[in-house]
Amino acid sequence: MLLLSLSLALASGLSTPAPLSQGSVATADPSQAVRSDAAAALARILDPSDAAGALQRRELTRIVVESLDPETSLVLEATALVADPDPVIQGLAIGFMARPDLGDLARPERVRALSTLVSPRSGADARVIPEEARSDAIAALGRIGDRFAAEVLAAVAVKEPDAALRVRAATALVEAPGGDTEIVRLVRSLVDGGLFAEGASRGSAAPDADVLAVLLPRYGQWLGDANELSTLDLMPLVVGLKAPEEIVRAAAGDAFQEALDRLAASEVRGRAAELLQRLTDLGISRDVTLYQSARIALSAEGDAGAALRAAQALTEASGLQLGGELRLDAYESQLWVFRGRYLAGLAELALGHVEDAERSFELAASALDAALSERRDLLAESERLVHVDLLHQRAVLEIARALAFLVRSDAADPASLGPALERARTAHERHLEAQAVYAEIRGDVMTGWDALLGSDMSVYQIFFGRRGFASGGGPRLQADGSKGGPLDRARIVELQGRLGRVLASVSPGELPGFALLEPAGPPEVVERLTDPLADPARRRYLDRIRAARLSGIDDAIDAARQLMTRAQERAFGIIPEPEIQALENLQRRRFAARQAAEEANRSTDRQWMRDLRIPGSAALWHAQDLKEEGRGTEARVIATRLEADLTDDGISDWWFVIGHERIVRAQLLAGSAFTDEGRGEEAERVLLRAVERIEDIERDLAGRGATFDDLSSFRALRSTALVSLAVNANVRLLDKDKALGYYERAYELRKDEFMRVLMACYRARSGAEAEARSLLRSIRPGPGTWYNLACTHALLGDTSRALDYLETELMQNHASVESANRQREWAANDPDLASLRNEARFQRLVRVL
């Protein structure tokens, strides 16, 4: 496009540029002439006496900044373009200053040039620089990063009169490499200045609440990463949680969660509990800190003993009787008792104390039922939403009780699982009730098992995740009684599969991928357990959800008609196409909903019920865990069954995108399992089917009027599938040309950091060392890039750096010994790492433990 635009400019009668160097005028492609002597072109752009017109100067600038090699001298000269009076040239220069491949080259000079645009100004000088240029320069400083850039951004965030630019500077500071020191200084200064106090002065020199809301979450990450913390470090979090501004309180809550997440991810036992205790001493609610201590100890640190102690303390602290006096917040007390009892039950289950766990779960149910008995669903909308949340928690509890039964039941006798099925049925009923109440409040609402299984307190998050307790907790636990031993990883993965079958069996079609159970018992009892339409209670809630959908769509149509009328009144004679399209879409949905309702009334077809519930992901989660445990064949069976279940039952128009997305992910998982097993041809066939399905869906959705942004999730999936095909072609088919072809197709769809490091690897593999190293300069090492950085540096001959990245990958990126061992086996045979195989350090790293 650049070559074409320059050619058009020259053909339109503009004078041609003077020779850039001896002989350059003879070059057939004018833009190539610019590229062949960028120094001369840059000098011409900067020469005020040159007679070139504005269009020529812009085209010259565009080509120079896009093609300029990172040479220090030219980068220094190019910084002068930032001050150019032509706003187009200035904008191009700002973008160039932040080009990732420049790395450290002339970093101070680039920052200094940009700072002349963003530093707070006053009087007539403030009108010289357009707001758009200042905003772009602020963003560029954030991408460049360093101490000086951070100081400039911090000054703008504090002193800039324009509120939008202050927020922009704070956002750039959060994203800037090396910005933590300034972020910490700014946030601390708010506490020192008493900004949060009621009625505190908010002069122009103090950051406002919007700026603080941007900074606090990153501050929370810093708290979680810091080795030592003072009381002064913790005060912004404590004070922020009590700030009068709602936006600050919400940001402080995010900061609190960020700090805990970082501590949990560190997998250093006790760090989170220590921080939480200190926050308690500083005034954070003890209920909150004990709850978080119990949850993190169990789900992230694998320490069931510590979790049990914290949960028991929470129960004791939150009881209705404290020091002989009745607590006034009886309702809140019941909720904290529930949380304490529930987490205690999970900890006891982890330790193998099943009877104790069941007793704790029973007490938790009593506390929650007491809160539910207040029937807040009959009150104002805000109270009804609280009731919905209570129903969700009640359903989560029943899933845990089903798991407890499975822990002590005979896995070889599926017919004896009646109690577990009853718990699962109750969980499904409570979730349907929650969906019905919520739908009656908000109209057309869809949900499914994922809303329950993905919640923070779900056993799927606490036990079955690929980190924390499920990954490494078992071997570290010591049973302290004779009531059974602690759960280990293998047992947990087995229980995950059994629980999935139980949940799937009480609502067929909602958890595709699991083989359904055939429980024993009287037919009417079995039917009530395994068929929601034959269960009076669940059928009643399904009917309420269906009715709420119809009324909700009708309400939405009324609102859409009003919007269309207002649009017509604002612009008389102009057809309001967006509003008309929105109204037509709603009318089509109403027609489909009414048709489904009529069919349900005159037939036994179950499609209408499937239209109300989104299929869950539990089978995919289980298959992924099986694959990581080296049980790829079992994983593929589940993935294949999931695809067949969704295909056979039919994909509803109400969850059309999600249904196809589930199938594609199942195909990707199956293909990846084939690759792991060395079956490259079969992997390629499955992965190509996934690509074809995605392309078909993209065409279908585009035909329905989907925008480019609407299709972004499928483009990302297609890119992932093509990357898997490239890896398979390189490692299993040993066809480097085919691998490159697949990868280049993927790269066109997605060019994020992960894709750039893979492109660097492909360029290194093909011998394009300069291009590979240029790409590497734009990569920030992290969990998603460590392994491919190791491969790229190995191909480039950087043995020490390659081994460093490989060691980091193996030590920090795997939740279990089994997972790390599979990565070791892969690395030992990876052709990209072939140059390392004779290194003693490599041989130690890939030795299976």
Automatic annotation (TrEMBL):
Keywords: Signal. This is Tetratricopeptide repeat protein. InterPro entries: TPR-like_helical_dom_sf. It comes from the Bacteria. The keyword NAD does not apply. The keyword rRNA-binding does not apply. Residues 1-17 form the signal peptide. SUPFAM superfamilies: TPR-like.
